[in-house]
Amino acid sequence: MSVTAAAGFRAAGVAAGLKSTGALDVALIVNDGPRSDAAGVFTSNRAKANPVLWSEQALEGGSARAVILNSGGANCFTGAFGFQTTHQTAERVAERLGIGAIEVQVCSTGLIGVGDETFRRGVLAGVDAAADALAHDSADDAAALRAAQAIMTTDSVPKQAVAIGDGYTVGGMAKGAGMLAPGLATMLVVLTTDAVAEADVLDRALRAATRVTFDRLDSDGCMSTNDTVLLLASGASGTTADEAGLTAAVTRVCDDLAQQLQLDAEGASHDITIEVRQAASEDEAVTVARSVARSNLFKAAIFGNDPNWGRVLAAIGTTDAAFDPYAVDVSFNGVRVCHAGTPDRPREEVDLTPRATRIVIDLFAGDATASIRTNDLTHDYVHENSAYAS
Amino acid sequence: MSVTAAAGFRAAGVAAGLKSTGALDVALIVNDGPRSDAAGVFTSNRAKANPVLWSEQALEGGSARAVILNSGGANCFTGAFGFQTTHQTAERVAERLGIGAIEVQVCSTGLIGVGDETFRRGVLAGVDAAADALAHDSADDAAALRAAQAIMTTDSVPKQAVAIGDGYTVGGMAKGAGMLAPGLATMLVVLTTDAVAEADVLDRALRAATRVTFDRLDSDGCMSTNDTVLLLASGASGTTADEAGLTAAVTRVCDDLAQQLQLDAEGASHDITIEVRQAASEDEAVTVARSVARSNLFKAAIFGNDPNWGRVLAAIGTTDAAFDPYAVDVSFNGVRVCHAGTPDRPREEVDLTPRATRIVIDLFAGDATASIRTNDLTHDYVHENSAYAS
């Protein structure tokens, strides 16, 4: 259940000194083919990190043979020197693997503004060590686990997933624990499959999958500069995937990883699903659910086990989705505390002590449904994010 | 320096048992004329509380002779019963003052969903007590102070201000400490003037003033259901205000009150001004500044005295304002830590220990400037907002 679950892939994770703790910090994923079709989705933030600028361009041909990832520095807002570092990283990987630099995707994560000479030396040394580790490692789960560990920042656990398709496999790994917001959550994700699939099929499958998974994870409303989700296909199974089946399998892996990201969100004490029902459209259901997921007051109330439906209604009242604010039902963990915009069941009936929290909002405006995953706003969130740089 | 600083106004603040602490909770402001021109600005939240629904309608004629305000319950999402409570409140005030109910503005603040029979009885008793108190009090500062205290919720101090115009006075009081976000911040504000001014002049002056003051205060991104800002003119000075002068005086009072709201924001340990310079337009400067004010990661960093300019750039990158992310300067308390999208002065030079914090963002895209006031995200914010209902 890893990034090497599909045939044709090797992985490595090494420690190159980018993390002051000495933990693993450089990962390399290699697609040994026979095919190298690939697709990617990148942050919609206009402030894109150097690796994103490189990888978006490099992926235009729809092909990738390797992904090099580092934690310990985002290489974002590091100027021309930073972009050269990304370029040199791709070239070093290409040299070691005997491929073209254009076939190398680069991902970085860590603090913005970190990308100096020391960082560059570390990353390049990491490339060499990872390439050496690859040579000695077969595509086993231990190497894939080390790769997943090497991309962790404030993550408490590595994140891996797998789905079995019709004659092929889709696997993946992810990192992300904060700055999780749409388009995309702050995260790096590498998905692999041994299906035979052209780049345009991969692209459609990946976009369809991220739209209903990572794009509906909104931990803290903050959008990162380095978000990257890649899907690489080796074709090693020999099975040509039908698009619907591939989309379903990729979606399952993305959904699994998105849930793992939610469960590991910085400082969270509740994993909250906000489901909006009977919306006029799916987009409006997402908008309404997201407005609640973005409300600090709502999130702080959940932290305090307070079924504060007033804050839910105050949040959805800021949207322009179709509904009558005085015809809305809201339930917390199955107890309808608000009916038709007025108090319903007593708040004392709601048990918010479990970590899993489910808010259901009925708009009575149509038949569309969508959910957003988020977390509560806690002391630990404030602590972790005020101390991140130290 | 209060809501009775201008001639022609009386005030009262009484305790009617709406607050469990027994503190003052009902305020009454009366305009004794000779004129009764008035204007108001109300929340743009679609989920409007019953008093907002009443007051917006009642103010359509551009006249108001009294404002009755209560804390201890927002009377929002309390159904038809709640609207009847508001209506009865206005009628009781009208009866006691010998005016029409339509000339009574009603404001409520406190928890959403609170507005039952007990609440109604308390408010109506408060009207009687306030009307009695008015009868015995002249328009002195002590009564005005009690009125300002009666509308406090999580506010730690009452908020009052005054500005002297050319032959007339503008005074005011405000409450608000959380749910402060544009259009408007969560707050009730009553402004009074003894200038002679028609309702349409008052309306333009008030909108011009709130646009650059309360609408640029964004404490936690949350928009309330009860926000109301009223401006009442008694004409008692006999001086007809020229519109520019009146707008300036009203703006000074609003700016003073907005700053008091910011300084008293729930749990804040830093009062942050985010100034955006050289924007293509004022609107875009506001959009960019607000994106930073809304970033929990930025706000948590400030709490930790961390000049994390990466989080500033990540936030502004989510906007569609005109600028090149790689040509932006950012300074924290006068130290330029980011120049042209790359690291500049060492972060160690920035002193974020003072409570007053100034972020300046230069976009190099035009010549417009605007500022947003906000606060940091602290443990106390989380604590206060998770325990609000208890």
TrEMBL record, chains A, B:
- Where is this protein primarily located? cytoplasm
InterPro entries, A to Z: Arg_biosynth_ArgJ, ArgJ-like_dom_sf, ArgJ_beta_C
Q: Name one GO biological process term.
A: L-arginine biosynthetic process
Q: Which GO terms describe its cellular component?
A: cytoplasm
Active site (record annotation)? 186 (nucleophile)
Q: Which residues bind substrate?
A: 153, 175, 186, 266, 385, 390
Query: Where, per UniProt, does this protein localize?
Result: Cytoplasm
Recorded GO terms, molecular function? L-glutamate N-acetyltransferase activity; L-glutamate N-acetyltransferase activity, acting on acetyl-L-ornithine as donor
Which pathway does the UniProt entry assign to this protein? Answer: Amino-acid biosynthesis; L-arginine biosynthesis; L-ornithine and N-acetyl-L-glutamate from L-glutamate and N(2)-acetyl-L-ornithine (cyclic): step 1/1; Amino-acid biosynthesis; L-arginine biosynthesis; N(2)-acetyl-L-ornithine from L-glutamate: step 1/4
Q: What class of enzyme is it?
A: transferase
**Catalytic activity, per the record?**
N(2)-acetyl-L-ornithine + L-glutamate = N-acetyl-L-glutamate + L-ornithine; L-glutamate + acetyl-CoA = N-acetyl-L-glutamate + CoA + H(+)
Tell me yes or no: is Amino-acid biosynthesis among this UniProt entry's keywords: yes
Which positions does the site annotation Cleavage cover? 185-186
Q: Which UniProt keywords apply?
A: Acyltransferase, Amino-acid biosynthesis, Arginine biosynthesis, Autocatalytic cleavage, Cytoplasm, Multifunctional enzyme, Transferase
Residues flagged as site, Involved in the stabilization of negative charge on the oxyanion by the formation of the oxyanion hole:
109-110
Subunit structure comment from the entry: Heterotetramer of two alpha and two beta chains.
Among HAMAP family, the record links this protein to: ArgJ
What this chain does, per the entry, is described as: Catalyzes two activities which are involved in the cyclic version of arginine biosynthesis: the synthesis of N-acetylglutamate from glutamate and acetyl-CoA as the acetyl donor, and of ornithine by transacetylation between N(2)-acetylornithine and glutamate.
The family note in this entry says: Belongs to the ArgJ family.
Q: What is this protein called?
A: Arginine biosynthesis bifunctional protein ArgJ
Species lineage: Bacteria, Bacillati, Actinomycetota, Actinomycetes, Micrococcales
